[in-house]
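User: Hi! Is it possible to get a structure for several chains at once, not just one? Here's what I have:
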Amino acid sequence: MPAPPWGRPSHVGRPLHFSGSLRRVFATAALSALTACASSADGVLIAAAGNWDAAYGEMNKRGIDLAIEQINQEGGVRGRPLRIVLRNDKGDGTRAVAIASEFVGDPKVVAVVGHVNSGTMIAAARVYDGGLPAVSTTASTPDLTGVSPWVFRVISSDSVNGLDLARHARAQGFRKAAILYENNAYGRGLAESFERNFGGLIVANDPIPSEASSNVEPFLAWIAQRSPDVVFVAGTEASGLAVLREARRQQVKAAFLGSDGWTGIVRDTALAEGAMVGAPFTAQDPRPEVQQFAATFHRRFGVAPDGNAALAYDATRLVARAIAEGGASRREVRQWLASRTRETAFPGVTGPISFLPTGDVVGKGYVMTRVRRGTLVIDGGSGA
Amino acid sequence: MIDRVVRFQSIRQRLLVSFSLLVALFCAAGLAGRAAIMRMSDVIGETLETVQQDAQLSSRLSGAVTQELAAAQRYLETRDTLARGDFLRLSRESHAAQRAMNLLHGQGAREMSLVASIDARLSDIEVRYARAHRLADLGRRDAAFAEGNAARAGVDPLLADVRQLATLKARGVDAASLKLRRDAQQRGTWVLLIMGVAVLLGLLVVFSTVTWIARPLRQLAQQARALSAGDFANRVDGDLPGEFRELADAMNSTSASLSRVVSVTTNTANDVAHSARDLANVSEQISASSNQMASSMTEISTGAESQVRQLRAIDDALRAIRTNADDVVLSAEELTALAAAIEETARAKRLELARSLGILTTVRETVREAASEVDALNATAEDINKLVASVGRIAEQTDLLALNAAIEAARAGEAGRGFGVVADEVRKLAEQAQVAADDVVRLTRVVTARVGSTTRAMEAGVSQVEEIEGVSRNVDAALDSITDAAGRTRTAAGGAAEKAERNAHIVASAARSVQSVARTAEGYAAAAQQVSASTQEQSAACEQMSSASTQLLQGSMQLRELVGALRADAA
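Assistant: Yes, the chains can be modeled jointly so their relative placement is included. Here is the combined structure:
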């Protein structure tokens, strides 16, 4: 899921004030560890960064880990093992910049997988612009589009996702919609895109807090009064479950539609039943490579993979392929990534991957699903 | 410095190159300065743009936030839909401004965290206002106002953040202008530095050129002085302007050839000195040995001379001996002769006496006749007297000779003993002869007197002729003994003469030997003297040679000193 874009760290995480020297110390320590690791391993080195502390971050990390394991089982890249150095940016832009500088400063690092969040990716993009290719897993904010020729992402932009969601809503026959969005970059961007593309009547467009425990009663009371066909919630599972709980309490009749941030709501089976979720990936995808991935992932981690895991897995394998086929240098990797076309697209579990000159992935969008008894089931065509 | 990088052929070339370089440097400095100024203006432009952008965004953010909050409050109070629209629009505007600020380059961590904090606070306030608005829409005014108040409570910290951000931005502007000023100062310093370097380089060019000229001049002068001082090892080398190169080459070749000459001279002087020293040593040795030889020869000569003197003394003595011996021989011969004569005479006398006797017989008859003959007889007696006198003299002399012989015999020691006896005998015989002679004289006188008387008496006394006959017989006897004595004397004298002759022979042969020895000694002495003389001559020659070689040595030493002072390299 496109990490709660960039508002999330600002909202939730406390602002981190690193003095320059402290940051340097961090970077130096990390670098030396990195160098030691690289020299002892004598493999091809890539890096990854994300907010591993969050649930979506952990899924990202699992996807990366699985990909690395599989690649090395298959013989590594260019006859050498693929090594990865992981850094936790905690969703914080400042920290992301420091980590990005560290990666750029280590000549052994050929490419970066990440970052996970929209905000951290935007902050770090300025650093990678110096010449290190970075493939973001789930940063979906439209602000990333065209930010740097060295920055790519395997998740579709929220401008595309908002369009997908709006079209799906329209396809479901909904004409009257209410919008609730977490008041951060992710929520606002997605809400704007949905509002712009829905074309029907918007009876409410309110910002909601991102915390699970916050008070959303007035918003749903107002929505209940205005009785829309669909309520689109742009946010994460935390706020999403709060909204669903309140809606049930007030017996709101409308259908509920969520973005990829909602993929986690399935854990409250009863509450989430019937909610529509736009996901960049679903394990229900019948394609054999998806099924194989899902099975392997389940075997490895005991849970089914979600969009975060699938996108991180794809991003990692994509980078490995770029090194294997393009070359083990930063420029060669970037060149290989940029030269993907529809014909030469990388076959990922989230679909074929090729890029626009802006670094956005081509032709990908949401797979629309519906929560059925605790799982996301592909919502074929019109749900009605 | 420059000439270490580039090798210049001449002063002119050097000056041209150096000043071209200098001009190029000034041009470069000017271009660099211009480029720095251009870059500076670019930086100023960028900085101003950033600052402007920053300021615009900052004011846009603070304005939007303020207006948004005002609109939210207005909607809450009036439920004016226009105000609600403003709230939503300004909310987007605020967040857009904030996003733009985040995307700005050169944001500090403090600013970023402040923007994040503003975003967080604003989002929270927006959510509260939105909730308040919905409460108001739902007609729950109290709750709406409570929520609105709660939202307003967050406004002050938010505005404080905004103000702080403005302060930060202002400070950023200050910092930027300070940085610009510092950059300008730095660039000014750099330009000054470059100018200073250029000036220094100019001075360096001047000084190094002067040095470049002065150094070879000094070197050449030094070499000239060294040459005059005799140091030919000095060379002018290194990097020289072409103008000096030829001069230096000429001086170098002069030095080299002088050095070679001096080297050869030195070697020769050394050789000469060496030989002179050797020669002097040899001379001294020869001189020493010559002196030794001379002194030895002198000693020999002296010895020989003294030997010669001694030999001469011996020779003299021998000669004296021989002379004496000769005398003895002569005397002996004379004695012999005399003795023979005496004998002969005596014999003749006897014969005559016998005849006289015969005559006497007749005399008596013829005394008268004989009276005239008595006169003759008297004369004859006179002659006999004279003869006897001479015999006496001879005897005397023989006695003396015998004495002398005795003396010589005594001197001759053992060898002369026999001789001494003979000499004694001779002396005795001589004495006897003397006595006899004296007797003869006396007898003669008597005879004479008697003849006279006889003569006188003859007439008277022929009887007395018998007496005369008797006397004549006595005379005959006496004559006989005289003859006998004379014979013995002759014999003795003959032995003495023989012995004396033999002695004289011995002495003569001794003298000959002595003379021969002396001659030899003299020869030796002469030879020694000759040797001595020649050694002295040699020594003198050696001394001359020594002094000559000393002079030669001194000369060569002087030469060597002279050459040594020239400090030629031996090569």
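The first strand of chain A starts at residue 44 and ends at 50. Residues 20-41 of chain A form the longest helix (22 residues).

User: Great, thank you!
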